[in-house]
Amino acid sequence: MSSDRLQQLWAPWRLSYVAAEPQADRPDCFICDGLSQSDDRRHLIVQRTEHSVVVLNKYPYNNGHLLVAPLRHVARPQDLHQAEVLDQQQQLQKMMERLNQLIKPEGYNIGMNLGRVSGAGLPGHLHWHLVPRWNGDTNFMPVLADTKVIAQSLEALYDLLHDVK
Question: Considering 51, 127, 129, 162, which one is annotated as catalytic?
Answer without folding.
Answer: 127
